[in-house]
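Archive entry. Fields below.
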Amino acid sequence: MPTVTVLEQSCKGVEDCGICTFVCPASLFSASEKMNTAGYVPPQILNQEKCTGCRNCMIYCPDFSIVVQKNADGSNSVEEKEEDE
Amino acid sequence: MSEIMHPLRMKYTREHVKKTTNCPGCGNGIIVQAILRAIDELGMDMDEFAFVSGIGCSAWIPSPLFNADTLHTTHGRPIAFATGVKLGKPELNVVVASGDGDLAAIGGNHLIHAARRNIGITVILVNNGIYAMTGGQTAPTTPRGVNTTTNPYGTLESVFDISSLVLAAGAPFVARWTTYHPRQITSSLKKAFTSRGFSFIEIISQCPVQYGKVTKSGSALDLLKHYKKDSIKIDKARTMDPESLKGKIVVGEFVNEQKPELSAEWTELKARVMEGRS
Ligand SMILES: Cc1ncc(C[n+]2csc(CCOP(=O)(O)OP(=O)(O)O)c2C)c(N)n1
Ligand code: SF4
Ligand code: SF4
Ligand code: SF4
Ligand SMILES: [Mg+2]
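PREDICTED_STRUCTURE:
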């Protein structure tokens, strides 16, 4: 299973950004109950076992706030897309 | 376990820069990563690059973030500075990243002549349809009829199709994508960074804070949804009539060809003249 980590401190908030909530094909992101030191509410990721490893969240996040790591053996669960349609 | 860091941030950005300068949801951040991913996938080093930008929000894409030589120049003039850098150091990959106001309005003449001369630089034009940094004034890229700070009753002018302009000026590589297409941006940038000629990539990008508010186009997600819904690939667009293309964004690589490049021609000329003298 890929591991998805939200780097909460650099996130600029689900309320005004929220791009991760839009680009995740499995809709795993939602607003968390936390607030970072800049006053933004970072996302939480629920049901990570449903993650396809597509890396959309990492690629689209404008503030380097999401890291997707591949499976422990270095493989990805799915073939990554060549294009965004 | 050691702390997890973003790999591109770790490898290619200056450690003391803790935040991007962009507002929440700004498309500039998507472009930042798309550029760094292209460099990473090509296995290139930041020392092979010089990044040049003008004035505006989008001009903050490379500077101060990128751990490379960055020139943050005057409004409208980054292509002029970049031309100087390229002619002085032709071995460098010289990349301009700046806004639509910067590159297509005040700096428009530099853009068309750099394309015509085929100076071997890459120009990334961030088209958010507005002068964002100064507060949402009408730009030549603002669509006709929308309200802005300077046209509170709607703009009366036609919108500039910059990619077509640069194409007509003779650029050998021209592409347009939106921030909904980060993988395609990276793919086009990889071609641009490894080709010799003038490469132009226009990126339609969301500015939720100025464009979104003054034109009432909505949030970052509203703009991204519009890019997703209304983008049409160039191959398909060529089969459509102008009426059905209204409101659409034509995306793709419009041209990719080889032409004699200016800095290489200069180097050859210099060698020829010097040989004649000795
Ligand atoms: C010579 C000069 N004229 C005007 C300005 C004011 N100014 C600063 S940024 C800007 C427009 C920026 O628009 P754009 O290039 O589209 O960048 P954006 O902020 O939209 O990314 C203007 C007019 C200036 N700094 N210098
Ligand atoms: S990698 Fe893809 S499926 Fe997994 S959380 Fe990110 S966007 Fe969702
Ligand atoms: S896309 Fe990134 S910055 Fe935006 S809300 Fe999600 S984690 Fe935060
Ligand atoms: S004003 Fe617009 S372009 Fe400038 S940083 Fe904010 S969202 Fe981005
Ligand atoms: Mg602009």
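CURATOR_NOTE: Residues 3-69 of chain A form a domain with the Alpha-Beta Plaits fold (CATH 3.30.70.20).
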